[in-house]
Amino acid sequence: MSSSVFVMTPVRFLLAAVAVGFGAGVLRADDPPVVPPNKGGGELDLTQFPGQVVDEVIVPVPSEIFAVLDKLGDPDWKAQVAVAGRPGFTERTDVALLLGATVADGFIGVQAEDRKTVENIGREVLALATALGLREDVLKHCQAIDDAAKGSKWEAVRSELDATQATVRAKMESMRDGALAECVSVGGWLRGTEVATNVIMKAYSGERAEVLLQPDLADYFNDALEEMLTRARNAEKLKAIADGVARLREIMQSGDDTLSEKAVREMHGITAALVKSITTKG
């Protein structure tokens, strides 16, 4: 499939997951962000987030979505920080999925201003990148993440997380390994959506739930995962993720312009189960 989607530069995440253009015909990570014209009005307009255009699909990135949720309430980000250790995988698609989820956790740590978590995330990202043969490519970013976290320089951490994602995706593309780049995006998007749905459930409103409406993105990821099944060693796991993403798309398309509280809860259950499959063995 052609790799085009609207990926917003990584540093913020939620429905996004490390976002940088992937594949031929996509803007590179170092290209300037594309900001569509303001549509006006009081509704949340996801097209207003800075990003890169790829296939007319919008991939909002972490902090941007989290920033919107911040404005609509006062989320307890510390409660969303992951505390479990991460498994050691050998299959590259498993590692890429976990890398995406881990970077998403880095953004969550920044939202929570949790220095220790962010320092740990920097080390975990380096270990996962090393498993993918990308240690030298991301080493300077991970060192910068650690240094910035020690000084509680959160904007600098965000910038380095963005740079890490961009570097990983660019390297994967140069190695003609677009499937791995897709896995990174899927892992981050699912972890981000899990957290966003949890935050929204704690203080539901139709306006807050609006940030979850990304059916085109879910459709894109579902197609990408389905294409990987014929050549993946972990086809069963990828099929379960693809089926879960397909169900998320159905939920997003089942209502009007807002999602019910019940729909948000179902989305949370699906994403929590998929993230568990990505971040644990067995």
Structure in words:
This protein has 10 helices and 2 strands, in the order ββαααααααααα. With 282 residues, it is an all-alpha fold. It has a domain at 81-174: Four Helix Bundle (Hemerythrin (Met), subunit A), CATH 1.20.120. The protein starts with 5 loop residues before the first strand and ends with a helix.
CATH topology of the domain at 81-174: Four Helix Bundle (Hemerythrin (Met), subunit A)
Number of helices: 10
**CATH architecture field of the domain at 81-174:** Up-down Bundle
Estimate what percentage of residues fall within beta strands: under 5%
Shape: globular
Q: If you average the pLDDT, what whole number results?
A: 79
For the largest sheet, list the strands in their spatial order: 1-2
SSE string, helices as H and strands as E: EEHHHHHHHHHH
Low-confidence stretches: 1-54
